[in-house]
Amino acid sequence: MTSTALVDRRFLGELERPGQVFEHLTPNWFAAVMGTGIVANAAVSLPLQSGLLTAYATMIWIMAAVLLIAISTGFVLHWARHPHAARHYAGDPVMSQFYGAVPMAVLTVGAGAVHLGAPLLGSTVAVGLGAVLWALGTVLGVATSVWVPFTMMTRTRQHEVRALPAWLMPVVPPMVSASTGAALVSHVPEGQARLAMLSSCYALFGLSLILGMMTMTMIYSRLVHGGVPVAQSAPTIWITLGMIGQSITAANLLGAQAGLVFAGSMASIALGLKIFGIIYGLAMGGFGAAMFALATAITVRTVRQGMPFALTWWSFTFPVGTCVTGMSALGIALGSAPIRGLADALYVVLVIAWGIVATRTAHAAYIGRVFRPA
Question: What is the rounded CA–CA span in Å between residue 285 and residue 338?
Fold first, then answer.
C-alpha cells in the first residue's frame, strides 16, 4: 500500500491543516440538507402511510435538522474567519448560484417540522418552528432570486457567460416556499390572514415559475448548442426537475387548501384552483417525463466516460424528491392509482440515490477531499 493511500484514509488526511474545513465551506454544502430533508418530506407525502415509514421519515428529518445546524455554524465561521475566500465564492458566477440552496435547506427542514415534529416537540412548538423557518427561508429565497440575477447583470465580464443548470438554484426557493407554505394555511387564523397566506403562496409560485421557465429556456438552448456540462457538473442537469416537480407540488397542494379560504358563494374559486393544479400537473408532468429521460441519458453517458464524485451529486436527490411530492399531490387530487404508484416508484429511486450520495459524501468529508478549494 502506498503512502498516498495511507494519507487518504486518515481523518482529514487530504487537507494541509484542519482549518481548511471552514476556509472552503461553500454554499453548495446546503444541498446536502435539501437532499436529506426531502427524503423525509417525500415519505410523508406518499398516499400509503405506516408507523415504520413515519419513524424512518422522522429519523431522516432529525438528521437533516442536525446537518442544517452544523453546516450553518460552519458557514458562519467560513465568513468570519475567511472573509476573502467567502467574498470570492459569493462573487463567482457559478458558486454564487448555490446561495439558493441556503433558503431551500431552511424551508425543507421547516416543512419536516410541521409534518413530523409534533410527536417530539408538541403540535404548537412544531408548527411554530415550521412557521419561523418558513418565514426565514421565504425572505432569504426572495432575496436570492433578486440578488443573484442582479449581480450577474451588473458584473463586469471578461468573457461570455453561458447558461448552466445551476442558474435555477436562486430562482427555485420561492417555489419551495409556495409548496411548503400550503401546509401552514390551515394553521393561520380564518379570514384575511388565511387569504393573505394563500395569496402570498400563489404569488411566490408565479414569481418562481416565470423566472424559472425563462431560465430553463436559456439552459435548454445552451445544452443544445454548447453541449452538456463537464463531467463534474453533469449531475446539475437534474436541477431542472426541481422546478418541474416543485411547481406540480405547489399547484396541487395549494389547490387542495383553497377550500379553507374560498367557501360559500366563492367555492367556485376553490374548485377552479384545484382544477388548475390538476391540469397544470398533467401538462408539466409530461414535460417532466421528457426532462427525466434526458437527464438519465446524459448521466449514463457521463458515468461511462467517468464522472468523479463531487457535491454536485446531491443534484440526484432533491429534484427527484420534488417529483415524488409532485406525483403524490397530483395523484391524490386526481384520484389516480397509477400516478400514486409512480410516486412510490420514484421514492424508491430517491432513497437509493440518497444512500449512495450520502455515503460518498461522508467518506469524502472524513478524508477531507470535499473541503479542498473548489
Answer: 13
* CATH class given for the domain over 9-148+163-371: mainly alpha
DSSP state of 230: P
- Distance (Å, rounded) from C-alpha 220 to C-alpha 224? 6
Q: Quick one: which of 235, 200, 243, 248 has its CA closest to 218?
A: 243
Closest CA to 254 of 216, 208, 292: 208
Cβ(103)–Cβ(137) below 8 Å: yes
Per residue in 184-210, pLDDT tens?
Answer: 999 999 999 999 999 999 999 999 999
Q: What is the largest CA-CA distance in the chain?
A: 77
Q: How far apart are the first and last CA of the chain?
A: 28
State the average pLDDT over residues 135-153.
Answer: 96
Nearest of 313, 281, 152, 307 to residue 218 by alpha carbon: 152
* pLDDT value at residue 20: 87
C-beta atoms surrounding 373 within 10 Å: 10
pLDDT in the model for residue 288: 97
> What is the C-alpha separation between 223 and 205, in angstroms, rounded?
26
Provide the residue type at 67 as one letter.
Answer: L
What is the predicted pLDDT for the residue at 161?
A: 75
Q: What percent of the chain has pLDDT over 90?
A: 85
User: Nearest CA to 243 among 329, 167, 147, 300?
Assistant: 167
pLDDT of residue 267: 97
Cell numbers at residue 177, please? 416556499
Q: Return the HEC string of 135-186.
A: HHHHHHHHHHHHHHHHHHHHCCCCCCCCCCHHHHCCCCHHHHHHHHHHHHHH
